[in-house]
Amino acid sequence: GWNMQYLDSYRAYSSTASPVSRANTILSQGSAVIPSQTYHDVSGRYRFGETQGFAGGLLKNVELQLAVQNVLNTRPHTLAVTIPNGLGSAFARGGDARMQRYSLSIKKNFE
């Protein structure tokens, strides 16, 4: 399977921000717009049949699923944010700091 997530671009400041706040945000961020981003995930599944086969049927009715999230290892955009002691940073809306990651699930049906 394949999953794609598209996150559209958006302004770095809120629509209710004052002109001074907008100017400060643009100066800190370096841009008025946070660019769009796209993330891709893939997954695959294999189901062993009901034959005895390997290890006396140990894998009989076993399903394995492997998934890779953020296949292209896309780094989320970083936002400049105001914190009590000055400027800090955060990840853009929808961004995931974990970057590329893997998951494996094993399921066995006992009948």
Description:
The chain is mainly beta. It contains one helix and eight strands. The strands form three sheets. The chain has a four-stranded antiparallel beta sheet with strand order 1-4-5-8, with no helix packed on it. A hairpin with a 2-residue loop joins β6 (78-83) and β7 (86-91). The protein is rod-shaped and about 70 Å long. The two termini are 28 Å apart. The model has no long low-confidence stretch (mean pLDDT 87).
Short structural description:
The chain has 111 residues and is mostly beta strands. The chain has one helix at residues 19-29; strands at residues 2-7, 10-11, 33-34, 37-47, 62-69, 78-83, 86-91, 101-108.
Secondary-structure map with pairings?
Layout (H helix, E strand, L loop, with lengths): L1 E6 L2 E2 L7 H11 L3 E2 L2 E11 L14 E8 L8 E6 L2 E6 L9 E8 L3
Antiparallel strand pairs: 1-4, 2-3, 4-5, 5-8, 6-7
Shape: rod-shaped
Using only CA atoms, what is the Rg? 23 Å
* Number of discrete helical segments: 1
Count of beta strands: 8
How much of the sequence lies in strands comes to 35-45%
Distance between the termini: 28 Å
Strand order in space, largest sheet: 1-4-5-8
Largest sheet: 4 strands, antiparallel
Q: What are the secondary-structure elements, in order, as H or E?
A: EEHEEEEEE
Helix content: under 10%
Structural class: mainly beta
The residue ranges in which pLDDT falls below 50 over 5 or more consecutive positions are none
Q: For the residues shown, what is the average pLDDT?
A: 87
